Structures are given as C-alpha cells and as structure tokens.
Amino acid sequence: MTRRHALPGSRSLRPMLIGLFGAVWLAGCSSQAVQPESGTNPSEAYTQLGMAYLERDNLPRAQRALNRALEVAPNDAETLQALAMVYQRQGEHELADEHFLRALSSNAGFTRARNNYAAFLYDRGRLRDACSQLEQATQDTQYDNRAQLFANLGQCQREMGDLDAAVTSLERAQAIDMRSPRSYFTLAEIEYAQGNHSRAWEQLQSFMRLAGTTPASLELARDIADARGDIENRRFFTEQLNALGHAP
C-alpha cells in the first residue's frame, strides 16, 4: 500500500513579535482595521501583521498587509514568501510559484522559504523540482530543523522511486537528530514495502515512542503484524483503528 504524506514543516510561520502591534481583533471585527504601531519599521511591521493574519487563515487581510509591506520593500524575501503562501492557499498556483522564486532570488540562503517552496512543488506533483529544492536546503548546516529537511528529502526521493537515496537521506536525518520522528516512519514504510518486516517494526516502534500513535502508524503496525503472522498484535492494532473510526 502506498501512503503519500504532505511534507512536514511547510507551513510554519514566525510568531508575531510580542508588543509589535497593539490589540489585534482577527475575528468578527470587519469594521476595525489593525495598524502597526508607530515607530516600527513599516515593511517588517506589515509583514508580521500579514503573517499573523495568515496563521489565522484570514487570507484577505493577510494579502492586504503583505502588499503594503511590498510597497515599502519590494524585494523583501520574508514578505514575498509569506505572500506566496497566501496565493498557495487561495489556489493561485502561478502567483505562488512566482513569489516563491522571487523570495529565493532575493535571498538564496532563505532555507525556510526553500523548504516551503519544496512543499508547494511536492503538493503540485512536481517531485523532481521539489527534491532539487530540498537538496539545496539540506546544505544549510546552520538550519535549526536540518534533520527535518533530510526527512522531507527522503520522503520526496521515495516518491520518486529512488529508494537508495531515500534511505540515505532518512538515515542522515536520524544521525543529525535521533528524535526526528518522521524519518523513522518513512523508513518503516520503505522496509515494509521491501519485505523487511523486522526492521520495519523497529523503525515504527521508534516513531511511536517519539510521536505517539497516529492512524497511519496504526495501519502500518497492523500490516506489519499481519505480514509477520502475529495474530494477536494484528487484532490489537485493528481494535485501535476501529476505536478511532477507521475501517480495517
């Protein structure tokens, strides 16, 4: 069974800086506009405001704030990638692609934007381009979530059918951060697909210790138990899935 998952970490937004704005009413206040406080950098203030709206899925206000930011600083990479994410959620795929590329052209070392762009490409089915962006992103040795980048790359390579490269990337993710759960799950899926059921179970156990159980992990655990002829565990995981409302 093939399971395809969205790339993790693709929608993380910087939290709005405390004190940058005054009281912000995001719901049910159509008549009250939110303005940046005086004394702040206008471009940064409007970008932070737009991202705060984006976090709350208020796309029209996010777009207006980010456009105001671009009026002040047309080539600001942070603003451009935030606007790309607005367009992505609106289904404006060409505009999203354009703004991601503009952000990376403005700041080629903007690794978070590159990961977000890779996730966009992945969701659009442009796997080769997504993997290419992730390969570039993983070169940033100072990126805080570098293990996640390798896990994302491994998942992308797996979807491309390059399992050897995928395993290498996923093992690299584990070497960088042994508590990176996604790498264990994807490796478990690969090992299961290749008939290595004991190794698949080891990887899946590591995932569940780190991340707990999820419907996908319970399904895989059930399938591994079934492949190993472990009737008791197959029944147990099936019951767990039924309790969550997932059919066998």
Question: How would you describe what is shown here?
Answer:
The chain has 12 helices and no strands. The protein is an all-alpha fold and 248 residues long. The protein starts with 41 loop residues before the first helix and ends in a 5-residue tail after the last helix. About 10% of the residues have low confidence.
Key features of this structure:
single chain; 248 residues; mainly alpha; Serine Threonine Protein Phosphatase 5, Tetratricopeptide repeat; Type IV pilus assembly protein PilF; TPR_rpt; identical protein binding
Question: What's a concise summary of this model?
Answer:
The chain has 248 residues and is mainly α. Helices cover 66% and strands 0% of the residues.
Oligomer: single chain
Helical content (DSSP H or I, runs of 4+): 55-70%
Q: What portion of residues belong to β-strands?
A: under 5%
Poorly predicted regions = 11-34
Number of helices: 12
Number of domains: 3
Q: What gap, in angstroms, lies between the N and C termini?
A: 13 Å
How many β-strand runs? 0
Element-level helix/strand string: HHHHHHHHHHHH
Topology:
Layout: H1 42-55, H2 59-72, H3 77-90, H4 93-106, H5 111-123, H6 127-137, H7 146-160, H8 163-176, H9 181-193, H10 197-211, H11 215-227, H12 231-243
